[in-house]
Specification:
The complex is a heterodimer of chains A (115) and B (114).
Chain A (H helix, E strand, L loop, with lengths): L2 E3 L4 E5 L4 E3 L2 E3 L4 E8 L5 E7 L5 E3 L5 E5 L4 E6 L8 E9 L8 E2 L3 E6 L1
Parallel strand pairs in A: 2-12
Antiparallel strand pairs in A: 1-4, 3-9, 5-6, 5-10, 7-8, 8-9, 10-11, 10-12
Chain B lengths: L4 E3 L2 E4 L5 E6 L6 E7 L6 E7 L2 E4 L8 E4 L6 E5 L8 E8 L8 E2 L3 E5 L1
Parallel strand pairs in B: 2-11
Antiparallel strand pairs in B: 1-3, 3-8, 4-5, 4-9, 5-6, 7-8, 9-10, 9-11
Classes of the chains: A mainly beta (115), B mainly beta (114).
């Protein structure tokens, strides 16, 4: 079985400050992990993924995420937040050994960046 | 290049009516997914196609829901005897494959059942 949790419904940060959006997961085998962003009235856009290799993954718009196997986490980070980063962020996981190609999405975290 | 498109963008229908939602994936993407998203929730899986066949339809909530992808490209999600609880945003996504590939999402169809 695979599951993912985004423990924060909302994250508030001031523009220019670093931001972190948390994600933890549970899988039986190895995880494939994804972050997506959703702007109002739009579909989800892919930001970055971890499949294998370097634990620090860099993605679009200056975002990065760190895969931590011992803590089963894949937190999304950005060194300096922009007001335009305000959106809904979704973490997703797929168990590589699960035999299914269906990812499980978290409930989403609303990121609000204040000017 | 062209992304995933979905039509219509909005659909209002009366309870009990039949609706069809269309998804046009990115050219060359063999995998196609349908999701349903309610307010404050993440995408909820409905059905996954690899090519023309439904590889996994375990997310379809009941037999009122059906989807096809006859030529391995465009897909149609069909809902019979709509109920108010079917109101949601229906998202379509495509990807190059079903394994570690990321998904590309369409803008969604907002379905409202009155």
């Amino acid at each position: 079985a695979q599951s993912v949790a985004q423990p924060e419904d909302q994250v508030n940060v001031a523009e220019g400050n670093p931001l972190t959006v948390k994600c933890t997961y549970s899988v039986s085998g190895n995880p494939y992990l994804f972050w997506y962003v959703q702007y109002p009235n739009r579909g989800l856009q892919f930001l970055l993924k971890y499949i294998t290799g370097d634990n620090l993954v860099k993605g679009s718009y200056g975002f990065e995420a760190e895969f931590n196997k011992s803590q089963t986490s894949f937190h999304l980070k950005k060194p300096s937040a922009l007001v335009s980063d305000s959106a809904l962020y979704f973490c997703a996981v797929r168990d590589e050994s699960g035999g299914s190609y269906i990812p499980t999405f978290g409930r989403g975290t609303s990121l609000i960046v204040h000017p | 290049g062209a992304g995933v498109s979905q039509t219509p963008s909005n659909k209002v229908t009366e309870k009990g009516k039949y609706v069809e939602l269309r998804c046009d994936p990115i050219s060359g993407h063999t995998a196609l997914y349908w999701y349903r998203q309610s307010l404050g929730q993440g995408p909820e899986f409905l059905i996954y196609f690899q090519g023309t066949g439904a590889a996994d339809d375990s997310g379809l909530p009941n037999d009122r829901f059906f989807a096809v992808r006859p030529e391995g490209s465009v897909s149609t999600l069909k809902i019979q005897r709509t109920e108010r609880g079917d109101s949601a945003v229906y998202l379509c996504a495509s990807s190059l494959g079903g394994s570690g590939y990321e998904q590309y999402f369409g803008p969604g169809t907002r379905l409202t059942v009155t």
